[in-house]
Amino acid sequence: MFKSLVLSLLLFSIPILLFSQSREMGVMVGVMGYKGDLNPTMYNPKTFGTGIGFIYRRCYNNYWSFKGAINYGSIEANDADAKDAFSVNRNLMFKSSILEFSGQFEFNFLPFQLANPNTKAAPYIMAGLSVFRFNPKGLLNDEWVKLQPLGTEGQGTPEYGGKIYSRTSAAIVFGGGFKMKLSRRFGLTIESGVRRTYTDYLDDVSTVYADPVAIRKEYGRKAALLSDRSLDQAVDGNIGRQRGDDAKRDWYMYSGIQITYTLSKRYIDSCRPFRIKL
């Protein structure tokens, strides 16, 4: 599935190089948020981290365009902020950086191109794919420790087997926003897009508690401590009890403001046929 998504993203970009005319570049500043085992809602300010990005847009016409983007930001969550007793007692927390490469097709509901002097503003929707790299960390004795190498749910131990999850994954991207002109060459866009990922480990939480003795034997004392931070330990331990929900994949979002600049003096203003104005 992951390889298919990457291949599709590359194939989608081929028509851009062959047929597009109007080009734009820009930067984006905003916030990243997260939805998963440690946070049930997407737009929770307590999970927000700063995000920055660079975009390159090629316009087919006034309605259709393709945007490639490189984004970097961070997400976080803490069970101490939860309202349910299960999460509060679980007592886990994490933070993670995210580096994302994405491509999205955009559809404007009104005619819009920065290179077109006759367009002013337009709402739009977008959808595409992304490939991203993440790195969850947990706090232990005032030190942020990388969680993926520690097999906190028993991954990679002789007792449990399996592989430690990959820190590279893919996501389906969809969202929308509003574009407007600031001047003849500059534009401003407000955008929010969510990512439905193909991993359940953005937060390093997915299945059940593993035997801390097995984890300690394989990965050391830190791994055992970070695998189970429960405030109230069961008499017989938490082995096999619910730690996360592996039936649901994690999500993250990126919302912000883009400032773009058109590199083109000509543009395509119609699909049938394409008419290029100078």
Characterization of this structure:
With 278 residues, the chain is mainly beta. It has one domain (2-141, 164-200, 250-277): Porin. 14% of the residues lie in helices and 43% in strands. An eight-stranded antiparallel beta barrel has the order 1-2-3-4-5-8-9-10. A two-stranded antiparallel sheet has the order 6-7. Strands 11-12 form a two-stranded antiparallel sheet. It is elongated and about 70 Å long.
Output the keywords.
eight-stranded antiparallel barrel; single chain; 43% strand; Porin; 4 helices; 14% helix; mainly beta; 12 strands; 278 residues
Question: How many distinct beta strands?
Answer: 12
- Largest beta sheet: what is the strand line-up? 1-2-3-4-5-8-9-10
Q: Element order, helices and strands?
A: HEEEHEEEEEEHHEEE
CATH class placement: Mainly Beta
Q: Quick check: average pLDDT? A: 89
How does the overall form come out from the CA principal axes? elongated
What fraction, in percent, of the residue positions are helical? 10-25%
Taking pLDDT < 50 over at least 5 consecutive residues as the criterion, the unreliable ranges are 5-20, 272-278
Radius of gyration: 22 Å
Q: Work out the helix count.
A: 4
> Structural class of the secondary elements?
mainly beta
Number of domains: 1
User: What is the CA–CA distance across the termini?
Assistant: 44 Å
Largest sheet: 8 strands, antiparallel, barrel
- Based on the coordinates given, report the CATH architecture: Beta Barrel
- Beta-strand portion reads 35-45%
Q: Remind me, CATH topology?
A: Porin
